[in-house]
Amino acid sequence: MTGTDDAAGGDGGSADGDALAADAEAFRRYLRAKRSVDDRALDRRLLGILRERLADRAARDGRLRVFEVGTGVGTMVARLIDWEVLPPGETRYVAVDRDPDALAGLGPFLREWADDRKAPASVTEAAGESEAAGESEAAGESERVGGSEADALVVETDARTVRVEPVAADGVAYAAEHAGESDALIGMALLDVLGLDRLDQLLDALAPGGTYYFPITFDGGTRFRPAHPDDRAIERLYHRHMDEKPGGNSRAGGAALARLREADGSTLLGVAGSDWIARPADGEAGYPGDEAFFLRHILDTVEAAVGEVIADGGETRALSAADLDAWLEIRRRQVDSGELVYLTHQLDLIGRVDDA
């Protein structure tokens, strides 16, 4: 499972998010910490397809409209600018997340990113009322974070102007309110918590010919190294916990692939692996960036999920609470000493809806 960015609204979220969501500040730090893990995992060929399709769309219409579900603190916004996936010119970027506490970190993250960026960038409060805010609040289904116009941000670089409009809402509900308005739909670490029966409703947000992009979609593999005798039992219970949550699916990548290939009215353009690999930095002590914090939160998530299954009486003969505690003690010690390697199997998917 990929962590928690999200459900129909939290940056990239897939693993059981309860342990993280209880501490908003820690969760925002986790979303920042996993940015480098996501960067390594994302398939560049599919990003190239996205770049080309967005450029074509912007050239045709003059302005691009992007809708992201599960924005979190905004790491995808920064990535799409840094990697020049968003075309030059103007982009309206509607940033939807169910968790207003996560979205509260959007402005601070983007300002810090702009300050640290080698190329010039600025982040300012937007002037004028946001389209997303006015329409969604009138419908009574979603709300601007903080309830003020200051929450809309304008990110400017030498070639791009991106108006980021944060909306605290369920992504599918927002899509229903704004059907056919978006040129691109992005949902990172989303489909394994969304529930695939809601996928068609989400795609309704796209205008004819629009592009969907679902990277970091968990697909049934959680591995820790060095190996431990209880690894498989812990993985099985961890995935079971995912499957038992509403909308959860520990095999979402393959299931989404099959559904999108067969869907009427849309065409799958590409699929590729995007496995997470978090490991000690080569030739250095410890992990890159803040990835030790990322790993500690993954272990906290495993503890909460597997512990809940054991407490409910699930397969206690295979793994006891004491076994879990012993496993966690070893794994946390390995993080502290820079020995633990963590891997998950995931898929990136990209496609388009048909022209009218």
What's the helix and strand layout?
Layout lengths: L17 H4 L2 H10 L1 H7 L2 H18 L2 E6 L5 H8 L6 E9 L2 H4 L2 H11 L4 E5 L5 H9 L3 E2 L8 E5 L2 E9 L2 H7 L4 E5 L4 H4 L4 H5 L2 E20 L5 H14 L7 H11 L3 E8 L2 E3 L12 H21 L9 H16 L4 E13 L3
Parallel strand pairs: 1-2, 1-7, 2-6, 7-8
Antiparallel strand pairs: 3-5, 4-6, 5-6, 8-11, 9-11, 10-11
Helix pairs in contact: 2-14, 12-14, 14-15
Protein name: Class I SAM-dependent methyltransferase
InterPro entries: SAM-dependent_MTases_sf
Uncertain parts: 3-20, 130-141, 145-150
Roughly how much helix do the residues carry, as a percent range? 40-55%
Rg, alpha carbons: 20 Å
CATH-derived architecture: 3-Layer(aba) Sandwich
Q: Please give the CATH class.
A: Alpha Beta
Per DSSP, what share of the residues sits in E-state strands of 2 or more residues?
A: 15-25%
Supply the number of structural domains.
Answer: 1
CATH superfamily: Vaccinia Virus protein VP39
Overall spatial form: globular
Overall description:
The chain is 42% helix and 24% strand. Strands 1, 2, 3, 4, 5, 6, 7, 8, 9, 10 and 11 form an eleven-stranded mixed β-sheet that branches. It has a single domain (22-127, 147-353), classed as Rossmann fold, CATH 3.40.50. The radius of gyration is 20 Å and the shape is globular. Mean pLDDT is 88; it is low at 3-20, 130-141 and 145-150. Helix 12 (231-244) crosses helix 14. The chain has 15 helices and eleven strands. The chain has 356 residues and is of the alpha/beta class. Residues 121-131 have a biased composition (Low complexity). InterPro entries: SAM-dependent_MTases_sf. It comes from Halorubrum distributum JCM 10247. Residues 120-148 are annotated as: Disordered. This is Class I SAM-dependent methyltransferase.
